[in-house]
Specification:
The model has no long low-confidence stretch (mean pLDDT 89). The protein has a domain of 68 residues. The protein is an all-alpha fold. Helices cover 88% and strands 0% of the residues. The protein has two helices and no strands.
């Protein structure tokens, strides 16, 4: 870090125009460095966001596939239960002599 004494040495060695030119040049260098840093950070963030989007997309697809499989299993269980109940009702009707009122 510069002290006031260091700055005084610079201004005593350099002419005011040279000092202004140096400050302007350093200012431009700092601005360019800031822009470069900003671009690097933006690129890194963009890459991270893309990575997260891909991971989230794959997790969504996996969850959908799991939900679809669960739905298919539930449907199969439901159909089996309905078939079992129909068979049970038919057996009860057969053994008791009761007819199904929904059949003509």
């Amino acid at each position: 870090m510069q002290t006031a004494g260091d700055l005084g040495i610079l201004t005593s060695v350099m002419k005011p125009e040279e000092f202004k030119s140096l400050v302007k040049t350093l200012s431009n260098v700092i601005d360019q460095r800031a822009k470069t840093t900003e671009m690097v950070i933006k690129a890194e963030l963009r890459a991270e966001v893309n990575s997260l989007e891909e991971r989230l997309s794959s997790e969504i697809l996996a969850a959908r596939a799991e939900a679809h499989a669960d739905n298919m299993t539930l449907n199969a269980n439901f159909v089996r239960e309905i078939q079992r109940l129909k068979k049970r009702a038919a057996n009860i009707e057969k053994h008791t002599g009761i007819t199904d009122p929904t059949i003509n």
